Each structure stands twice: as C-alpha cells, then as structure tokens.
Amino acid sequence: MILVALALFGLAAWAWTPDLPQAELDAKYLRQPGDRVALRALPGVQLHLRDSGPKDGPALLLIHGFGASLHTWEPWAAALSETYRVILVDLPGSGLSPPDPSGVYTDARSEQLLLALLDQLGVGAVTLIGHSIGGRIAWGLAARHPERVARLVLIAPDGFASPGFDYGKAPEVPASLKLMSHVLPRPVLRMSLSAAYADADTLSDPLTDRYFDLMRAPGARPALLARMQQTVLTDPVPTLRLIRAPTLLIWGEQDAMIPFSNAADYLAALPRARLAALPGIGHLPQEEQPGRGLAALQAFLRESQ
To answer: What is the DSSP string of 32-43?
Structure first.
C-alpha cells in the first residue's frame, strides 16, 4: 500500500501544472510594455496586441484560434507589415491578454472588444483575417458590421456543426478537459497539438514550449473552458449570406480539426468567396508551411484592392 501511495503521489506531482507568474511570461513573450493596452470604452479589459507596419497603410486585423495566441501569425506578420498596417491581438484569456473581467466569452462579446480596439486605434474598415474560432468571430463581425470589413480572409474557419457542437445548445465539456485547469502535462499537450499538423515534425520543441507556457498564463485555462462552454452555434448559412466583402478561404486539405470538406459549405453560402486549397497541410497553415498560405493571401490582397 505504501508503494501504491508513493506511486500515486509521484503521478500527481508529475501531472500537476500550476500557472506561471505573469512577470515570467512577460519577460519571455511581451515585446514591449506598451503592447498590452487598456480598452477605454470597456473599463477593466486589457488586450495584448502588436501594431506594426505603416500606420497609413491598409489595415489588417488577425484573430487567432482556440488555445493559440497572436504569436501564431509571426511567420506572416513580418512580410505583411512591409506594406500593410498589421494588427495582431490576443483574445481575452489567451496569450498575454488577461481574462475578461466580465466572464463573458461569447462571439458577441468578442465582436464588441474588437470593434472597441479598432475605434481606439483610429482604424475604420479593415481586412479581417481569422483562423478557426477566430474565423467564426471574423465572419460574424463581417456580417453584422459590414462597414468595418473591407475584405475577409477565413483560415479553416469554425462555425458548422460537428460532433459535440450541435446547433442551438452549449457543448458538454468532458471532465477530462475540466481537469486541464490543474493538470496539463507537457507530453499530453504536445500529443493534443500534434493533431493540428499534417507533418508532426512541424511541432518543434520551441513551438511546443510556447503553447505550453501561454496555456499556463494566470487564468488562461478557466477562460478557455468558459469560451468553450459559452459557445452556442446556430446554422451559419443565413449569416454568411449577408456578407458582401470579397472573401478568401485558406484551408489545408489534411486538416484533422475542422474538415476540408467544410470549405464547400462556405463557398456555397458566401456570395463573393474563393478557395485556396493547400495539399499536404493541416489545421495551421500559418505555422506549418507559412509561405504557401502567405502567397495566397498576398495575391488576394493585391487583387482585391
């Protein structure tokens, strides 16, 4: 019994994953103190962002996916900022953005935050670029606020029903995911992340470390679970049909997270959409083979100006 107890204690000690101090994360990932800003229109809300490129250039706003951060766009941002004003943002409770003090993580709340950010930065209409859940937020904003979205780029966007996410009801979050707030061993996270890449070698040790570190930001894991629990999907087709902005879909054909076949549903619903299909790439084109997705994006931006 003593040996069993010791073994269980050792397993618990190995699996226990506390938050990291914010100061430690800032020292490693915050480019400069001014990159975390307070939203004047929404007291208490702070967002981590990077605003680069010519301030008078056409503006791009990039929205990351679930469990990710603005760092996912780093392979694209340097090239894009030569011509465009590139605004990268961490959603509340992701990356280096603190959790939303309201506790609300719905898409409507995300739209409110992003519009407040654009107003504060003095930006009118933007090219809105969203990946996965960020894509769902992007197309919702484009439909409801067409005056703010000149062009739309959706990278493997979420929104259509899938196993565990039916229309009209919040998903049932498994107990194993709820444990994530306290137990998140690095090997388990790496195994989960690897499914997002067609080529598992893309998930290098430094890339794994970044995801692992930022998932342990204070309050990040409860915020991620809250975002999942507050997601109630509705049939996206009526909303998508409202979008008039020129739209580019970028999708890895080997996406194991959101199936490539969903691209046909988006093309059927979006009035002005086209598809850049990427063979041999998974759910994260901007990380797995950045040059291929970037080339499609840059061509679209040039043609739709």
So the answer is: -GGGEEE-TTST
Closest C-alpha among 133, 188, 222, 162 to residue 14? 188
Using pLDDT thresholds of 50, 70 and 90, give the confidence band for residue 182: confident
Task: Report the C-alpha gap between 169 and 278 in whole angstroms.
Answer: 33
Tell me the CA distances in angstroms from 250 to 127, 129, 130, 185, one per residue in order. Answer: 15, 10, 10, 32
The 10 Å Cβ neighbour count of residue 36 is 16
The pLDDT of 255-270, averaged and rounded, is 96
Nearest to 183 by CA among 19, 20, 16: 16
Has residue 5 got a pLDDT over 50?
no
Instruction: State both tokens at 304.
Output: 């739709």
Lowest-confidence segment of 17-31, 152-166, 259-273 by average pLDDT: 152-166
Whether this prediction's pTM lies above 0.90 is answered by yes
Decide: 152 and 245 in contact? Cβ < 8 Å: yes
Nearest to 211 by CA among 229, 224, 230: 224
> pLDDT tens for residues 65-101?
999 999 999 999 999 999 999 999 999 999 999 999 9
How many CB atoms are closer than 10 A to CB 1? 5
Beta-carbon contacts of 203 under 8 Å, excluding residues fewer than 6 positions away, are 190, 193, 194, 197
- The three-class DSSP label of residue 228 is helix
